[in-house]
Write a structure and sequence with these properties.
Layout: H1 7-15, E1 21-22, E2 31-33, H2 36-48, E3 54-60, H3 62-67, E4 74-78, E5 85-89, H4 91-94, H5 99-115, H6 120-139
Helix pairs in contact: 2-5
Length: about 140
């Protein structure tokens, strides 16, 4: 009987659609909001990867490239102020590569956001070594 009270909540929760959302980035001295075509490509790659979180897409300014040389290409991380995932894309470099490679690099960032820095198989690797170590000891 007490579960009947949860029925409206479960019905409401089942109708909510969860999807990725690009959050506008507030400009700072080192980065700025990415251009529209890069944001559109990022939204397309988020849909391909079924990413369901919030993210920011930014472009580095000249000062941002001088401070961090990795900003000359593409990078990703977590914004320490907003705790949102972000992708840094150098538009000048990014426009020079084919669109399928652009899509791959953005999808790679979203895969990092979903899986973390290592895949689930790599996280299981120590347990696999322990398991085979015990098997080896038992066989000796």
């Amino acid at each position: 009987m007490k579960y009947i009270r949860l029925l409206p909540v479960m019905l409401f929760a089942s109708t909510i659609t969860i999807h990725a959302g690009m959050v506008p980035f507030t400009e700072d001295p080192y980065t700025m909001q990415a251009s529209g075509n890069i944001v559109a490509l990022a939204q397309r790659s988020a849909a391909i990867m079924n990413f369901e979180g919030t993210y920011e897409v930014v472009e580095p300014k000249k000062a941002g490239i001088e401070i961090n040389p990795w900003n000359k290409f593409i990078g990703h991380g977590v914004n320490p102020q907003t705790q949102n995932n972000f992708i840094v894309v150098n538009a000048e470099w990014f426009k020079g590569i084919p669109e399928d490679q652009q899509l791959f690099l953005l999808c790679r960032s979203f895969a990092y956001f979903k899986e973390g820095s290592s895949s689930s198989l790599m996280r299981m690797l120590p347990y696999i070594f322990i398991f085979f170590g015990w098997i080896f000891l038992l066989l000796l």
